[in-house]
Give the backbone structure.
Amino acid sequence: MTDNIESILDEQRLFEPPASFAASARLKPADLQALHDEAANDYQGFWAARAREALIWDRPFTTVLDDSNAPNYAWFSDGELNVSANCLDVHLAERGDKTAIIFEGEAGDRRTLSYRELTAEVSRFANALKEQGAVAGDRIVIYMPMVPEAVIAMQACARIGAVHSVVFGGFSATALRDRINDAGAKIVITADGGRRGGGIVELKQATDTAVGDDCRTIEKVIVLKRTGHEVNMTSGRDIWWHDAVAGVSDECAPLPVNAEHPLFLLYTSGSTGKPKGIQHASAGYLLHAKLTNQWVFDLNDNDVFWCTADVGWITGHSYVAYGPLAAGATIVMYEGGPVYPDAGRFWKICEELGVTVFYTAPTALRALMKFGDDFPNQYDLSKIRLLGTVGEPINPEAWMWYHTVIGKERCPIVDTWWQTETGGIMMTPVPGVTATKPGSCTQALPGIIMDIVDDNGNPVEAEGGGYLVIRKPWPSMLRTIWGDNARYIETYWEKFQNRYYVAGDSAHRDKDGYFWIMGRIDDVVNVSGHRLGTMEVESALVAHPRVVEAAVVSRPHEIKGESIFAYVVFRGDRPVGDEADTLTRELRDWVGEQVGSIAKPDDIRFTDNLPKTRSGKIMRRLLRAIARGEEITQDTSTLENEAILDQLRGLA
Ligand code: WT7
């Protein structure tokens, strides 16, 4: 019997980087080794060298890491720079006419912006923000569709030192209001609406509700005309984007700010309580965002990089709005839904816009995989040379589909582990170097010290499982939770007396030193003294040819302590009655074969859908409450489909 979390997933396949890719990759094995060695010999010197090479400073730093207020760390803290200048102005001489953004609207409309044009638009809007009263340090909420103006607004804030807080356009008026109030925002930038799944997302209407009665801080609402449908404009408060920029200069000198000046807040829902305003700093954040776009996505001047994430998520910050621009890349932005008008939309965009590097989430892949191979097979995906995933562990089944059907077995897959809090990718294969294993995010990048510890904070021996921690501070780490530093310390540091950053995930390491994420630490199930990560059981279920998705939780069990309760989405019609009983037996045996009888679910419930947050994360706490027959106390208003609650309860 052990306190460690046991791994039951046994994935043995190993994929070497394709030789053709490795030959021209930015990082070769020797380069990566040199970076690791440099970081091991002189941790601070390593980061200082990267910060001097990668960023343009208005005032050079002399301090690298300031740990005098640990665990509130500061990086490069006597230096000054401007993030927008580092993403835009730095490219004007060499690649001013290069395309920065290729945009496609859901209706098929297209637009491109060169680095020169983007710089002008950002500068113009930055001036407009100043005219509307924005000054450095003000919080500005951005609640927009996935259009170039979302990036322009973010970059414009950075240019004048305002702190943006992007709120995902799929969030409700209530969620928007909570975030506005918590941040004490002065301006909201929104649009009349956005296009999604064939319909219109009523952004202005939601903004009106959010800033309506009890919001005292909002002075101005700037509204982009996107859909052109009628919306209310409150005089004195609301102004159209096109009116705000009319006659305004397209030159705006970037304001140098301190390296530690907050660049943005991004709210993320914790497992309990109100959303946390994750606060990122300017220089350290941008450094890691830029470096990882080069190291992990191998971006060079011929690449067309498409990260499908919305700017409402951290992925859309680091791999759309900031990092790839700092790296001088061409990015794709797409406004709409992945299955509009059909499940071939992503692949059509890849073909038509010549995407070379594609980065998406496992949940999107599983959804698209469900529609079969005919959709991707209709399109020419031969320009794609590198694939990536983020957001949750990718089950080997989806990994293999990505590898064969999308990547045609010639593209490395980078399974990137990171969090809103880490600012950028922490663990991932380096595409021309690391051999991959389906479902493993492999190892940490240079300068990032990941480890796995037991409940007492002691490193877990080889091949064991436990808490995933980060042993040393890193430049792009969150600085605090906005307005609640005590919660910052309690959430990320207290568990091990401020010695390590606690990611909240459970993980194990295999014999080759590869990391495997087993799920959130709260999702660990204890069956007869064996602590199992729910994700591994889910992965086994999904490997069954007829299972599309699965979510696993636990419920108390008289004998075993806890037993496994699985919710399963089946291909085709949802099985009921006798068919459901037969399939339940079949799936139990299947899990028994795949991972061992310890992991056999005691209960299996078939459902048409799983409850997910708007960001696509399965709401496991809700499922746990249902499995345990408890009252639902969670907010179910963000559920995509509230009607499935009865199916989950076994009532329909
Ligand atoms: C949590 C962070 C980072 C941007 C998107 C999510 C899970 C993320 C992986 C991966 C296994 C992953 C972790 C992490 N996660 N990437 N490659 N393999 N798990 O950001 O909403 O802050 O969520 O997502 O559980 O802690 P987030």
Notes: The mean pLDDT is 93.
